[in-house]
Amino acid sequence: MSKPVAPSSNPGFVHLHVHSAYSLLKGSIKIARLGELAKADRQPALALTDT
To answer: 40 lies in a domain?
Structure first.
């Protein structure tokens, strides 16, 4: 039986308002690239808020 993982005391920064290329006139970056950038910056998540 595995031990439960304790939540990190510092979960890192998370963008809560991000637009991708699917939001016309608001964003121009592709979703896959957003994920790559978030991972490279050690962000555990991001909130994709396309309109």
So the answer is: yes
